[in-house]
Amino acid sequence: MPALADSRPTHLPTHTFHALAPGPRLLVLGAVHGNEVCGAKAITQLLQDIDSGQLAIERGTVTFVPVTNPLAYQLKQRTGDRNLNRNMAPSAIPQDFEDRIANVLCPLLDAHDVLLDLHSFHTGGAPFVMIGPQNNSGTLEPFSQAEAEMQLALCTGAPRIVEGWLDTYARGVSRRAAAPVAAGSARAQTLVTNPNYGVGTTEYMRSRGGYGVTLECGQHDDPQGIKVARHAILQTLALLGMVSQPMEALTAEREILRLVDMTDREHADDRFSREWRSFDAVQAGELIGVRHSGVEVKAPHDGFVVFPNPRAEPGQEWFYMARRRA
Q1: In terms of DSSP bridges, do strands 255-264 and 160-163 run parallel, antiparallel, or are they unpaired?
Q2: Is this structure's pTM higher than 0.85?
Q3: 206-221: per-residue pLDDT in tens?
Q4: What are the distances in angstroms from CA 257 to CA 162, 164, 323?
Q5: Does residue 159 contact residue 260 with C-beta atoms inside 8 Å?
Q6: pLDDT, tens only, 101-116
Q7: For residue 195, which phi and psi values (nearest 5 degrees)?
Q8: Separation of alpha carbons 207 and 202, rounded Å
Q9: Distances (CA, A) of 81 to 9, 71, 100, 186, 219
Q10: What domains can you pick out in the chain, each with its CATH number?
């Protein structure tokens, strides 16, 4: 249920520390989705450490945004008026709360070189980190900092690395636009069928010449997620040489998966065949879910289920499929 207009947040709190020695410019985001709070809690802990002198920022600039979507956080749900981590761009005529946040957040992204965006997910499973494309000069997501971004991903400690977000999302949007499903309002339908709707914080950062990763720290309510987020922030600060503490040794070689397909939920009565967790392995033809109409949704190939969301809204992502990187 929407919040009353006069009780909506009116500002976006940020915390910036400028070291006296030059260095990188790092932005750390928590609670881009309001029910994903591990990043907000980890950032709050580290702000206390900085204030008490236990942690010193010695080079560069770091900005922490504990709660990036304060309306969704206030409502204790994923979104406020819409998903902040889609269609990330400034708006000359903002239409909703997230447009107004983006008008503040995009200049923040522009002012930094590196982004660590801390998230969590609906169902069980181990943490993972999402990266962008390989270096390329294409039209969808040209990029030239894949090596630095991979080092950032590795330093988070997540056991899996996932790539292929934007091109997979674009293919899904093409199918969605060809056979649109009512998504509540004309604006919502326009958003979810816009190819740019797949652009979130990291995609925007890459488009502005920087790089960044999205760290999925675990299931929403898992208390270990705060430790995962805290560890990743400290490791990132060490990797960039912004603090005196050395990096911890990196663990064994990581599994790298590539997203290859996206399936929308078409009806509120579409249901999964079982309680899927991210990275559950499936074989070609294995039953994943059943539509309201009775049509079975089966795995198109061997691979892994990623981001299964049993509470997805009709017309929104229900689950993704991934394969090991070739």
Answers
A1: parallel
A2: yes
A3: 999 999 999 999 999 8
A4: 5, 9, 5
A5: no
A6: 999 999 999 999 999 9
A7: -55, -30
A8: 9
A9: 13, 8, 11, 13, 23
A10: 5-253 (3.40.630.10), 265-326 (2.40.50)
Q: What is the mean pLDDT of residues 268-283?
A: 95
Give me the residues paired with residue 119 across strands: 216
DSSP state of 198: G
Of 37, 97, 27, the residue nearest 62 (C-alpha): 27
Q: Which residues pair with 25 in a beta bridge?
A: 61
The residues, any chain, with a CB within 8 Å of residue 261's CB and separated by 6 or more, are: 168, 171, 172, 300, 320, 321
Question: What tokens appear for 27 in the block?
Answer: 């932005």
Number of alpha carbons in the 13 Å side-chain half-sphere of residue 311: 6
Q: What is the DSSP string of 275-287?
A: ---TTEEE-TT-E
Helix or strand holding residue 163 (H, E)? strand 160-163
Q: Which of 90, 20, 102 is nearest to 57 (CA)?
A: 20
Residue carrying structure tokens 């690395």: 161
DSSP assignment string, 231-259: HHHHHHHHHTT-SSSPPPPP-SPPEEEEE
Position 1 confidence tier, pLDDT thresholds 50, 70, 90:
very low
Amino acid of residue 118: L
CB atoms within 10 A of CB 144: 12
Mean of the pLDDT values across residues 14-30? 98
Instruction: Indicate the angle between helix axes 146-155 and 224-239, nearest 10 degrees.
Output: 130
The pLDDT value recorded for residue 79 is 94
Which of 98, 322, 97, 318 has the alpha carbon at shortest distance from 201? 98
Residue 200, beta-bridge partner list: none
Are 298 and 283 in contact by the 8 Å Cβ rule? The answer is no
Segment 307-318 shows an average pLDDT of 90
Cα distances from 199 to residues 107, 163, 288, 305, in angstroms, run: 16, 14, 27, 22
